[in-house]
Amino acid sequence: MSAFSYSVGNRIRALRKQRGWTQEQLAEKANLHYSYLSSMERGERNVSIDSLEKVINALKINPMQIFNFMDTEVLEGTADKESTLQAINALLQVRNTDEVKMVYRILIDMLETFNGNSNNTNNST
């Protein structure tokens, strides 16, 4: 198994789990056998372009997203701040304006909550 195959497989697994899908569900949507998908996720297969395209279409993602290994690093906690910000930006680039504005509002609320909790902690010491 090559490092590249392993990274692609990890990325497929992460995208599948983000959607709350089982391997069987993704395999069905991609018209692949679930054992084949399982071996893809483990990086044990030399994946054909056709199979990869089926997975990309089933996940309804931009083909470049399958090679965005940074997301996996962010989720596993191994990415630095700059890489994490780039991953967040990449996620937002493919969303429409209303969705980006909604994420922005949610982020503002979260940061205000963090600031409030931080102030409460500082005041109690």
Topology (elements, then pairings):
Blueprint: H1 3-18, H2 23-30, H3 34-41, H4 49-59, H5 70-76, H6 81-93, H7 97-123
Helix pairs in contact: 2-3, 2-4
GO molecular function, one term: DNA binding
Keywords: DNA-binding
Protein name: Transcriptional regulator
Short description:
It is built from 7 helices and no strands.
Structure commentary:
Keywords: DNA-binding. Helix 2 crosses helix 3 (34-41) and helix 2 crosses helix 4 (49-59). The termini are far apart. The chain is 72% helix and 0% strand. It has 125 residues and is mainly α. It folds into two domains: 3-73, 434 Repressor (Amino-terminal Domain); 78-123. The longest helix has 27 residues, at 97-123.
